[in-house]
Design goal:
Elements lengths: L1 E7 L5 H11 L2 H4 L5 E8 L10 E8 L5 E7 L2 H29 L9 H8 L17 E5 L6 E5 L5 E2 L1 H11 L3 E6 L5 E6 L5 E5 L10 H4 L1
Parallel strand pairs: 1-2, 7-8
Antiparallel strand pairs: 2-3, 3-4, 5-6, 8-9, 9-10
């Protein structure tokens, strides 16, 4: 299993890298097919956010869906512990779901386009601000005028799936929403978290005037 540790707006010490490797050694027990784990460490310079100034994001890449967890604390070691707790829970949930699926449909092996989903969730190195979003995975940041607001844009490749599949993917990466192409309507759609265990779905009517075809949005 490959482990890649990168720092964003910060340096990552060898001591922390070794600590990450020790922590992630047990990942293969829950996800034996793991090929790579990406670890991104971000430092927030704003003193008002000192209590959450260190953020650690973990991304597990295997033959199945990408599984991600992140957490923030006042030090990166604490943030890593919190992120690991979330990651282990999602890995267990994914493992149990696979076992349950095999019990219900032992002769059916779902076809998974690993390359396509990896493109959707991949955390690629940030290009220069002048770069254009031409390839899935490309991302760029720009500041909103003279304000402190920074807007990050990223291009994803759409993947046709059902609403149930989109909810499952959203839970595995720990997001509050998930973009996809609805398999039945072929429209761009987003599933999002509401209160408790309820979810909402928004679809775009691409037949309206001036809208881009679905093929252009994927």
């Amino acid at each position: 299993m490959e482990i890649a540790v990168v720092g964003r707006h910060t340096e990552v010490t060898d001591r922390f890298r070794r600590h990450v490797e020790d922590k992630l050694a047990k990942v293969t027990q829950l996800a034996p097919n793991t090929r790579r784990v990406d670890v991104e460490v971000t430092h927030e310079k704003n003193p008002k956010l000192a209590s959450v100034s260190e953020r650690v994001e973990l991304t597990v890449r295997s033959k199945g869906p990408v599984i991600r967890a992140e957490a923030a604390a006042d030090d990166r070691f604490g943030a890593l512990d919190l992120a690991m707790d979330k990651l282990n829970e999602r890995l267990r949930r994914s493992r149990d779901r696979r076992k349950d699926h095999r019990r219900r449909t032992p002769d059916v092996v779902p076809a998974v386009d690993v390359r396509s989903f990896d493109d959707v969730q991949a955390a690629e190195p940030e290009p220069e601000q002048e770069a254009t979003l031409a390839t899935p995975g490309d991302a760029v940041e720009h500041q909103l005028g003279d304000s402190p607001v920074v807007i990050r844009q990223k291009l994803h490749r759409g993947e046709p799936m059902t609403t149930d599949e989109a909810v499952e993917r959203m839970e595995l990466v720990g997001h509050d929403f998930f973009l996809y192409i609805d398999k039945e309507s072929a429209r761009p759609a987003a599933v999002y978290r509401r209160r408790g265990w309820t979810y909402g779905v928004i679809e775009l009517d691409t037949t309206c005037s001036g809208a881009a075809p679905v093929s252009d949005l994927t």
